[in-house]
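In keeping with the milestone schedule agreed at the kick-off meeting, the structural modelling team has produced records for the first pair of proteins. Each record is given below as a sequence line and a structure-token line. The laboratory manager (R.T.) confirmed that both were archived under the project's standard naming scheme.
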Amino acid sequence: MISTVYAITLVGIGLVIAVFYFVIANSKEKDEDYPSITQKWYGVRSKWFIFLLTLGVTVSILSTNPFPTPDQKKEYSGNDYQNVTVDSHQWYWVMTPSTVKAGQPVAFQVSSADVNHGFGIYDEKLTLVAQTQAMPGYTNKLVHTFDKPGKYKILCLEYCGLAHHAMISELTVE
């Protein structure tokens, strides 16, 4: 799925580049009033386009390789991972178990009993470390490995009603 989205994005970028090139190539009509100025700025425009193209391709490659999200479809076997079931309700979380070990992948099975919720895991400095959607009738799998032990806050990232702000839980990583 990710490789399909990546390929579609690259094709879209290619089409945008083709349109830019077409416009540049077909806009070099001769203007007899100011030929030296016109020629100079056509050259600047072409160099600017090449610079932006190079910058865009470089940033795209560096920001997507390696892809920052772990493979969520990978099947783990045996004792390779810890399983945590997360059920969301207006306005609380039910996590079983609520304690996991650091350094070992945790597979969160996240679902909702009522409305959409955003399952966000925050470290002790309240920096978001992982997130997924909790949706009624669907279970999302989120795989994350905690590097260090501590208390992690679980907050709802999607407005789900009047007591949304109170939808807080805690995960202990040993």
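The second protein of the pair:
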Amino acid sequence: MHLPAWSQLWLLSQIEWQRLFLTRRGWLTIAASCLLWFVLLRYLVMPLSQWMLDPAINEGAEMVAGWVDVRQLLLWPRPELSLFWLLALVLSPMAAVLFSAGQICRDRSRGTLRLYCLRISRSSLLLGRFLGQLLVQGTLLAVTLAASLALALWQGAALSLELLSAALFCWVFVMLCLLPFTALMSLMSVWLNSSRAAVSLAIVVLSVLPVVLGVLAYYWPGVLPLFGWLPGAQIPALMNSQPWQSWAPLALPVGQALLLLALSLYSFQRRGI
């Protein structure tokens, strides 16, 4: 007896999430994430947040690195969260590409893909894997966000509704930004037979497309608006956002994710297993 489609999706996403805690590879992922964020929080976020807490820098704060406006970051409830926001926007998409590469090709290489497809539909399998990867990424993001909150409390912040609201904003908006990258890896995983090849192709696509568009824009300036349709194009605009300031930039990643998932489903239905 076949399960309803929603039950299949929930079961597959749970299996993907459980692998994070029940397999050696999952524990290695957790250990690597914790180590990376410990280094960032201890040696980058902590000293920078102490510097930003100095009232003297409120006067004459200038643009940093062309994208980041310190004056906007100072308007957050705590600098620890604003710095976490910047780091998560930059690092989380790269982590999504690395960790979600084996959604379909992992089963294909192990020979279990045909077995799965005897019991469930291909669309349920692909969407279940996709949702499972979002659960994994959301869990890891929540853990690192909790560590940032703990750092803020340790440095003298008062636990308040405003602080918790800013933390929730970080989690929700970063997860929405990760949607197109996770969906892209669904497509790469359908096209290719190994996680390593999927990651390599995704890196090539994400790095070559801006170069190609840049060359085309040199000769035909009319293609410049296409830069705004690339995955992650909204991230520079979000860097200087304040909590719950605007939802407009997030329409793009949601649309990109839906388009990439539709292409993944079409490719998966057309390709043999």
